[in-house]
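ERR on first pass: missing label on line 2. Operator R.T. fixed the label and resubmitted. Corrected input:
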Amino acid sequence: MVSRTIDGTKIESPLPLEIHDLTVAYRKTPVLYGIDLEIEPGQLVGIVGPNGAGKSTLIKACMGILPVSGGAVRIFGKPFSKAARRVGYVPQRESVDWDFPVTALDVVLMGRYGRLGLFQRPKATDREIARKCLDKVGMLSFEDRQISNLSGGQQQRVFLARALAQESDLYFMDEPFVGVDAATESAIITILQELRDMGKTLLVVHHDLATARTYFDSLILLNMRLVAYGKTEDVYTMDNLQRAYGGRLTILSDVAAVREEGK
Amino acid sequence: MGVRVGKWLCLALLGGLVTPLAQAARIGEITQTNWQSQAIDFLTFSNPAVMHAIFGSLFLGTVCGLMGCFILVRKLALLGDTLSHAVLPGVALGFVWNMTKDPVAIFIGAVIAGLLGTVMTQLIRQTTILKEDTSLGLVLGGFYGIGIVLMRMVMNLEEGNKAGLDKFLFGQAAALSRGDVVVMGIIAVVTVLLVYLLYKELLVTSFDIAFARALGLPAQWIHYLVMILLAFAVVVALQAVGVVLVSAMLITPAAAAYLLTDRLSRMLLLAALFGAGAGLVGAFTSYLSTGLPTGPFMVLAATGIFIIAFFFGPRYGLVSRIMLKIMRQRRIQVENTLKAIFQVRERGGFKEEGVTLSDLAARRNVDGRVIEQEVRRLERGGFALIEAERLGILERSVFLTPRGWEQACKVVRNHRLWELYLTNAAKLQADHVHEDAEIIEHVLGDDIVMKLERRLDFPSRDPHGKLIPGQKDMERGFILSDEVNPVEVLP
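pass 2 clean. output:
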């Protein structure tokens, strides 16, 4: 809960994201183990850790894309299924088939689908918003392009525009900077900072330690379990990084495997 | 003779795998006349069997076309094949239910068997280390084997033999009863309606399932719905196309449509049209010929559509791509000739308007016959005029039209701008940039040229000290060279 005082009255609103004892396993291999997190609103949060640390898994589990083995996730105080509309998502670029017969605008329009009921089609206002979001990422002139005719950076910007079209309060982004050039990277980070300044909360999976330090307000250091979470300047210490990156916790993963078998 | 050739063709098509289990009936047997009057009979719905065949093939083509699109973009094309073979035991058991060819009982039996096959595929994949293709193969073989055995057993019964269950193997549109067509029509309406109403859900779950889940959409239910509709499509097509070839009616129209468009909505529309068209053509062809099953003809018609799309599709078509390439090469050659004319004139300080063909040939480093062709192409394109020897001209010469002059300036400008950019901005040596500019000069768009000019601060000289023609030079029609006297170009 966050407490705020507006006009002398104390208003309590639930946190954008609360995770309690979250455990996720792929078949018998555990990927995340007993994660506890409470994310304050209006932050740009980086999720950092070595390969296979469970960074993507964490955000996917938060959105119910992956089944969880244990624990609870609350988004604005509710389970995900009740709060889906307030959540925006940028998946990894490689997760889709870019030969799919859709145009850039079609993809961005998908961001509006969560607000439309079953059987409902996107309306003129949805198109308007989608085009504005494409414009925001500098891709409006490509709206009618089939998406395989876009460069990697352009594809990533289309994904970002789709998330913008969701008009959410909490965003999960999976490696939005992979395979984009420096110009696109700085354009994207500017947009993310603008969203943050509007009071939105963003959790961004990021693989580059060097830029993580400057990009994010807070960092989640992950390696199967939560290594550290807090303000970037507090978390970004040699000690923490070594704990996150220095070697696998082999016993933990072995025991976790046995534990899964025992279920 | 025709019969023998037709049979041979049919057997070859099916790889000679199975001999048709019984002589197939054909619609044409009802009226023994020549093909013209048969065609008229067919097209005027002269008898109920023809009408059933026409509507049946339209319904099945539409449904298969639509569902084919979804299995194609979801990369489940092989599942269509497995599912279509897996329905066979259900057909036999559906018949046994009340020992008649009751369309509803057979429909239900077939759908249940097909879905059971799909579930088995998933089960094998999820609980073992076997991969998708293996589990598909396992289920296809197992279910089809059971199906053939059951069919044989049913056909050995008296009622089974008469019912013509063998039509389910290779398909016979003529065997469609009124009840069959009604069931097919209902399924077609349901499928079209659901695809229309759930278009956005089907689109987003097919394109990006994780995002669909993150939207809070019931992605799993939509997947089940696709599976059920797919089973419906297979069963709808079963009697007219046959188990063996149903999957082709799913994949082929959809694949042809995929090559022709890059919007899912248009792909669906095209595939439905192709499917319905192929169905109709197949039913008609089978009606004209003697005793041949319908399925192969429908599939052949669909394959014909695919082949046309493969060769002539505007973007991915083989012939279209070759044509585009030839046209591009022509343009490059024209531009190179124009550039050479510019260069010859430049060497003379732009004093002479005309360029003799021999000078041009020397510059282009080709022989007289080739240059003759090249210059004629310029003339045809309105870029240049050829003047014979007369008045002051001693030799046949080529003169640029204003259009030709502008184009020549553009190519030279592109070449030299790019060289300058490579040396200034990319810091390449001046002698390393020519080769690259030779290619780039033909493909630089106006917007990039503008950016380059701005970036290089509207330069007038290239790294070799040569002039970069600007917008003014193009409009004026001549170069104001360092020498004072401007040389007029032909009006």
